[in-house]
Design a protein that fits this description.
Blueprint: H1 4-11, H2 18-39, E1 44-49, H3 53-68, E2 72-73, E3 82-87, H4 92-111, E4 116-121, H5 127-136, E5 142-144, H6 152-160, E6 166-168, E7 192-196, E8 198-199, H7 210-213, E9 218-219, H8 222-234, E10 239-243, H9 260-268, E11 275-279, H10 288-296, E12 303-305, H11 313-318, H12 325-338, E13 343-350, H13 357-370, E14 374-379, H14 397-421, E15 426-434, E16 441-446, E17 451-455, E18 464-472, E19 476-481
Parallel strand pairs: 1-2, 1-3, 3-4, 4-5, 5-6, 7-10, 10-11, 12-13, 13-14, 17-19
Antiparallel strand pairs: 8-9, 15-16, 15-18, 16-17, 18-19
Helix pairs in contact: 2-6, 10-12, 13-14
The structure holds iron/sulfur cluster (SF4).
Residues 201, 203-205, 208, 210-211, 245-246, 282 line the site of iron/sulfur cluster (SF4).
Length: 483
């Protein structure tokens, strides 16, 4: 049932209207027959996901809609009747890789001419890429952007009713993608479920393509988020991963005054023994109020992903990150003071245009001060259309690679030292699955985010157990069950 606030936002086009969703459900019903008619059997669908957790969550919705249209998940790409690639636009090499993979699909289409091949996701919001795909890959029949994901039944229906090719891509900058509630979701197996709390981004970091391809920031109504969280818990998941490009600014534009801390408080108050994680946090919007809540909470993990990107104020300014090194470090030390067991992970861009070796040393020293549990490091890659793409970039790629390796070596040393220091400690672990490396062992995740493997009998995925760490390796622990 729609509440008043959702209705108001429908009228303001922030939320897809009920009538529009009804139209899609109707189309989904028609497609069931049309797909069987075209394929000659219940269709098998394959959705391949590139990029971030947000895309993973979108793919779960795409697969949910396809199942709703009578599809079964294919075991692999070769036996699929519908192949959809959910693409990512964050890095340049992802684009090159994607285009070569799409080229490979031609052979599958020749072997099965009824097959439907489609591309969607962030890369399909870029005009030049869409033009290239239209010209080079005539066998790609369906191309759509992130703003019309909920319209998949209608787009597929047009194709099944005889249109040669259906393309529905971004209609203009400065818009927010409308929120579609109540889409069917085929969640991945496991103990963790993702829950998108907001979409898009308003920050326009100078290197980032996201605000252009995902649109402006828009938050879901808290009631809808709580409804979905309850569904996730009722399905037996033990960990909820809240997703958004900048979860710390959750709530902007909602009629009810609510911020991310309050949303977390409400999710935490739901019944059950479960964990909450979230990503991604922006340091400029991360508050002490939020850190205080995490410190007091029994359910929110003391493990925060806080992308710093650079340790140099000059580079942070060029990146339009809108915080300083000092502010960032003050957040870290406040969190460490409140939670001695807190761990941090981060993202770092090495070789941003004009980064000097002194700038890089600032990044290195910040990492040594914070002592991240792990970091996701990237060499800067220009994205056409972003401000940084037109900045002078005199640093040779070889030098950037050298800096990256220096940073990775420093991080390896920190990880090894800190993980060894945990030997003998007892961690509460959420059991995930049998270990891939040791027969009879299970693997799980500590609250601090580290993977731990341990010999185990009578332990199931989804159990919470106590594990004593016996060996701290570079990127995981080994341990033993505490009876
Ligand atoms: S916060 Fe910055 S880096 Fe993150 S998605 Fe938004 S613009 Fe991109």
């Amino acid at each position: 049932m729609l509440n008043t606030q959702t209705k108001q936002r429908e009228d303001a086009s922030a939320v897809v209207s009920r009538e529009e969703m009804m139209r899609q459900w109707e189309m989904a019903g028609q497609n069931r027959q049309l797909l069987i008619h075209r394929m000659g059997h219940p269709p098998r669908a394959w959705v391949k996901t590139f990029g971030c957790q947000g895309n993973v969550a979108d793919s779960e919705k795409i697969m949910g809609m396809l199942i709703d249209m009578g599809c079964e998940p294919a075991l692999d790409e070769k036996q699929a009747d519908i192949i959809l690639y959910n693409t990512c636009a964050i890095r340049e090499n992802a684009q090159v890789r994607l285009l070569s993979m799409v080229g490979e699909l031609k052979r599958l289409k020749q072997a099965n001419p009824n097959m439907i091949i489609g591309l969607c996701g962030c890369m399909m919001q870029q005009e030049a890429v869409v033009r290239q795909i239209r010209n080079s890959f005539p066998f790609v029949e369906l191309i759509f952007g992130t703003h019309v994901l909920h319209r998949l039944p209608q787009l597929l229906n047009r194709l099944l009713c005889g249109e040669h090719r259906v393309v529905d891509c971004f209609e203009g900058e400065g818009r927010a993608n409308p929120i579609a509630e109540h889409l069917p979701i085929r969640r991945t197996d496991g103990v963790q479920a993702s829950l998108q709390i907001m979409y898009g981004c308003d920050n326009f970091c100078s290197y980032c393509i996201v605000p252009y391809v995902r649109g402006r920031e828009v938050s879901r109504e808290p009631d809808q988020i709580l409804r979905e969280a309850k569904e996730i818990l009722a399905m037996g998941y033990k960990e909820i991963l809240l997703l958004g490009q900048n979860v710390n600014s959750y709530g902007k534009g909602l009629a009810e005054p609510i911020n991310f801390t309050e949303l977390l408080r409400r999710i935490e108050a739901l019944d059950g023994d479960f964990r909450i994680r979230f990503m991604t946090s922006h340091p400029k919007d991360c508050t002490r109020e939020l850190i205080d809540l995490i410190a007091q909470s029994k359910k929110i993990c003391h493990n925060i992903h806080l992308p710093v990107q650079s340790g140099s104020d000059r580079v942070l300014g060029q990146m339009n990150r809108r915080y300083t090194r000092e502010h960032y470090l003050s957040l870290i030390s406040y969190a460490k003071e409140k939670m001695p067991d807190v761990t941090f992970t981060t993202d770092i861009i090495v070789g941003f245009p004009g980064e000097t070796y002194e700038d890089f040393l600032q990044t290195l020293s910040l990492c040594q001060e914070v002592r991240y549990q792990c970091m996701f490091t990237f060499i800067y890659s220009p994205r056409p259309g972003t401000r940084a793409a037109s900045m002078p970039d005199p640093v040779p790629y070889k030098e950037k690679t050298k800096r990256l390796n220096e940073l990775i070596a420093a991080q390896h040393q920190i990880s090894e030292e800190d993980n060894r220091a945990r030997e003998g400690c007892i961690e509460r672990v959420l059991v995930e699955k049998p270990s891939e490396h040791h027969e009879g062992w299970m693997s799980g995740r500590c609250e601090n985010g580290m993977i731990v493997t341990f010999p185990a009998e009578k332990v199931q995925p989804g159990d919470f157990v106590q594990v004593r760490i016996t060996r701290g390796l570079r990127s995981e622990y080994e341990g033993e069950l505490v009876k």
